[in-house]
Specification:
Layout lengths: L4 E2 L6 E4 L7 H6 L2 E7 L14 E5 L13 H13 L3 E5 L6 H14 L3 H9 L9 H12 L10 H18 L22 E5 L5 E4 L29 E3 L7 H4 L5 E5 L6 E6 L3 E2 L5 E2 L2 E5 L3 E5 L2 H5 L20
Helix pairs in contact: 2-3, 3-4, 3-5
GO cellular component, one term: nucleus
Keywords: Hydrolase, Protein phosphatase
Family: Belongs to the protein-tyrosine phosphatase family. Non-receptor class dual specificity subfamily.
């Protein structure tokens, strides 16, 4: 049995716990030059004196710790060590969760593999590896983001951070701070628009399908059209959606819950509850920002409009256009 655990493959990459640092002969034989410590414990500097580079990421092994934001820097540290011709040891206290998470993030980026595949690969070196559930979700999100070099500028990361703020505010029984509310239409304006929600009284557009939240409903299984057309849940009395910029005056007041009014005619069109609310279909939505179906109309887009790139002008059907001579 090897004295230190090497990740399978052609990389001089190792994983372990604090005790691994005591195996000086094995570390020297493996030509370990870079050590990444992923833990929040007092460290004896003498343990790291033999190594060329030492990086410390101070995190606890708890589910709400943010390791995702550190993946670009830990990946770079590991790559720099390997590029320098030496070996890299990634360790935490037990060599089970935090160290495994950082090694997996590196493997995901280098080999373009999923979190599950990376975990299987790391376990070939160290069978006890098991990131906590929070770290595993972060790794899965990292994969969905396509392992970017700049995590913090990625919309998916920003949205994840916003959700964390909402959960924290909810746990404290408070509304999120105004500057931390993410108005989605000010950040992400992309994707096909399949339908539009308009105020039933004045017809003012309030939201589009791209900002509606996925919402499971047994009613969708009743669709007998056979076309598999995407629709909003029929049994639910509300459309749940992301915060949008027209809601800013209301949502930034710091109230836990309240009403949403159409910005044009001031008709009550919905409500919000940062602590969440139970939909009429029995699903609990957190946070709950909704438009009442009885107060808005769902206007479907044509196939041509759905496929048209954002910002492109509509092209009139043949024979319906006007030449300059006819004007």
């Amino acid at each position: 049995m090897a004295l230190i655990d090497r990740v399978p493959g052609d990389l001089n990459l190792y994983i372990g716990g604090m005790f691994t640092l005591r195996r000086r002969d094995a570390l020297q034989q493996a030509n370990i030059t870079h050590v990444l410590s992923v833990l929040r414990l007092p460290l004896d500097d003498n343990l790291f004196s033999p190594f060329k580079q030492h990086m410390v990421v101070e995190v606890d092994d708890v589910e709400d710790e943010n390791l995702l934001e550190r993946f670009p820097s830990t990946n770079k540290f590991i790559q720099d060590g390997l590029d320098g011709g030496g070996g890299v040891l990634v360790h935490c206290a037990m060599g089970k969760s935090r160290s495994a998470t950082c090694v997996m993030a590196y493997l995901m980026q280098r080999h373009n593999i999923s979190a599950a595949q990376a975990l299987s690969h790391v376990r070939q070196a160290r069978s006890i590896c098991e990131p906590n559930e929070g770290f595993m979700r972060q790794l899965e999100l990292y994969g969905q983001m396509q392992t970017p070099d700049n995590v913090e500028e990625t919309p998916a990361y920003q949205r994840w951070m916003y959700q964390r703020e909402i959960e924290l505010s909810r746990a404290c029984g408070q509304a999120p701070e105004a500057e931390k509310i993410r108005f989605e239409d000010e950040h992400v304006i992309e994707g096909p628009v399949k339908f539009e929600l308009r105020c039933r009284k004045c017809r003012r557009p309030l939201a589009t399908s791209q900002y509606l939240l996925p919402h499971e409903s047994t009613s969708n299984t009743d669709d007998k059209s056979g076309e598999g057309e995407e629709t909003s849940p029929r049994n639910c009395a509300h459309h749940f959606l992301d915060p949008l910029s027209w809601m800013r005056p209301e949502l930034e007041q710091g109230k836990l819950e309240g009403r949403l009014e159409c910005p044009k005619c001031h008709t009550n069109v919905g409500k919000y509850a940062w602590q969440g609310m139970k939909c009429s279909c029995s699903e609990w939505i957190v946070p709950a920002i909704s438009l009442a179906k009885g107060r808005v109309d769902e206007v479907r887009k044509s196939v041509a409009e759905i496929r048209r790139p954002p910002g492109a002008a509509a092209v009139p059907p043949p024979g319906t256009g006007h030449s300059r001579q006819n004007l």
